[in-house]
Amino acid sequence: MTRLGARLGAADAGSAPVGFVLVGGLVVVLFVAALQLALVLHVRTTLVDAAAEGARLAARADSTPRDGVDRTVHLLTSSLSERYAQDVVAGTVTHDDVLLAEVTVTAPAPVIGLIGSAGTITVRGHAIMEQQ
User: Locate the TadE-like domain: which residues (predicted)?
Assistant: First the structure.
């Protein structure tokens, strides 16, 4: 009986390190995926905030849409990178008979860290024009 028990225990020897490596690898992959998702959401939120701030500046009575673009580019360059501030457009739109300033930002979606591009993220910021 001891001999059979020793054989059964020997068949299981060495499986703990393999299980540890496999589970550890899976945990690392899940952690990196969650971290990348958080980074993409951070970039998107920063783009939305910069576009909204640029629209608020462009909507002021003493400002032009170009001022809104400059402010948005400054915010994106200082908070993310210059490559996220390459496609910023400002203009005016009408929604329900209300004139709005609109700033549109199109930026690359980060793939690994802030590197790479899996596509683009397009966000818009709006503000009611002061001069109507």
Answer: 14-56
- The string of pLDDT tens digits covering residues 37-68 is 998 899 999 999 999 999 999 999 888 999 99
Task: Calculate helix-pair angle for 65-79, 15-59, nearest 10 degrees.
Answer: 160
d(CA 37, CA 27): 15
The reported pTM is 0.79
Q: How many CB atoms lie within 10 A of CB 4?
A: 8
Specify the length of the chain in residues: 132
**What b/e string do you get for 101-118 counting C-beta neighbours within 10 Å, with b at 16 or more?**
bbbbbebbebeeeeeeee
